[in-house]
Amino acid sequence: MGVDRVLVVRGHGVTGAAYQVSNVGDPAEGVALAQAALEAAGPHTPARARALAWDRLAWAHVRSGDARAATSALGEAGTALAQHGGEDEPGYVYWVDERELQVMEARAYTELRRPLRAVPLLTDVLSRYDATHARELALYLSWLAVALADANEPEEAAKAAGRMFDLSSDVASERTAHRGRVVLKRLVPYRDLPQVRELLTRLRRPQ
Question: pTM, whole model, 2 decimals?
């Protein structure tokens, strides 16, 4: 059976709405929208489009605090991506690949405060990431810093945070600025440790 491109694009629109609602609105509504997008698309949607839709559902579950459902949806996203084989697909999925899915999985586990899963994923991604993409690299480092703090490794968290702030100093991005505030909030309880204190002192200095 051929791909109904109109349905695929419509499903992507609903999936995008689910992601936005999950972030700034009611996560339960985000879950409902993401599930509706998956059901409307059906099994013949291209593999990478299905992987993205499952990932958006996983994120909605993360935002609603349902770790079990989020983990299940992440697994479905990986299964869908593994079925990608060069089939006809919409242009909006060009960026969905194994590395990006790994990033999204790590972000989910960071938000769920499961650092033992998040840290290895982020460490692997960062070891292979193009350092010229400063904004994305800063965001990934912010998640690593938070995950390390949650793993009770504040010294390593401060090191990752330092790299993040160095990169983001030249990037005009509200998202990286927000992530910086999140990281600092997570590090404040460890401010008596030398590495953390040094970072906080450096960031207070006039630039």
Answer: 0.86
